[in-house]
Write a structure and sequence with these properties.
- This protein has about 260 residues and is mainly beta.
- An 8-stranded antiparallel barrel has the order 1-2-3-4-5-6-7-8.
- The radius of gyration is 25 Å and the shape is elongated.
């Protein structure tokens, strides 16, 4: 009798879980708009060689595009590689500094969506059902590239007139600026929040993912913008950061797994 009751309880507990199959691999493409957050100054600077400088909505916007490959542990938990070609630009600021930087960023990352933590009851709540595809990722990346900021040119130095060198808008302002025009193996930490929509095949398996993603990339360098100066003068208080807002499309394929919820 005890054995029969045990079997009944086990079967009833299994019946409370739903199962679905999913593809293990995904390959995607992405692109969008970047925003630079570096050492350029638009307000509160102690010296103003360009006092009318202001940052509008499009001042420091540029583009990125790339590809990604992922392995899905569950439909909501994955790890993967991402490669992006990125352009950043900003300026001119109050010191007439400006730059355009082009680089590649390859990152390894993990991604988890809210559906990983929701049980099968979410199907009966439209809000929770929609929430399951909200996802977060954290990774480690390496940046390599260059910018178009030229070294300081003493022949154009106008400090004797009480100002900064403003004749070359893409040059460093004085010889003590240790910024670089090229950089490689710059480590960074990308963090992303996104939302995705799944398209399903005839077997109710997701095979296409459409996503919108907002990413913030914290770099361990102050050379992305080409300027690395005295923070007491140029408000150069932190490492370079950039963000991206983009869309992605991913194709899911390969071997299949079973997900129980």
């Amino acid at each position: 009798m005890k054995k029969i009751l045990t079997i009944i309880l086990l079967l009833s507990s299994f019946s409370g879980f739903s199962q679905s199959s999913f593809y293990r691999f995904g390959f995607g493409v992405q692109g969008g708009v970047t925003t630079a957050y570096t050492g350029l100054s638009y307000e509160g600077a102690p010296v103003q060689s360009n006092p009318n400088a202001e940052k509008s909505l499009g001042t420091n916007k540029s583009i990125f595009y790339g590809v990604s490959a992922d392995y899905y542990i569950t439909p909501f938990l994955s790890a993967g590689l991402e490669y992006n070609m990125v352009e950043l630009k900003d300026g001119p600021d109050q010191y007439k500094r400006q730059f355009v930087s082009n680089f590649s960023n390859i990152e390894i990352r993990g991604n988890v969506a809210a559906g990983q933590f929701l049980d099968n009851n979410y199907a009966f709540n439209p809000f929770i059902y929609a929430l399951r595809n909200l996802n977060l990722s954290l990774g480690l990346g390496i940046i390599s590239g260059k910018n178009n900021v030229l070294p300081y040119d003493p022949s154009l130095d106008n400090r004797a007139n009480g100002g900064l060198n403003t004749q070359l808008p893409f040059s460093r302002q004085h010889p003590n600026d240790i910024g670089k025009s090229e950089f490689s193996t710059v480590f960074n930490i990308p963090t992303t929040i996104g939302y995705r929509l799944n398209l399903y095949n005839a077997y109710d398996e997701a095979f296409i993912q459409l996503g919108i993603n907002y990413k913030m990339v914290f770099t361990f360098s102050d050379d992305i913008d080409g300027y690395n100066d005295n923070p007491a003068v140029f408000q150069n208080n932190s490492k370079d950061v950039y963000t991206s807002l983009g869309i992605s499309i991913k194709y899911l394929f390969g071997s299949k797994g079973i997900f129980y919820k």
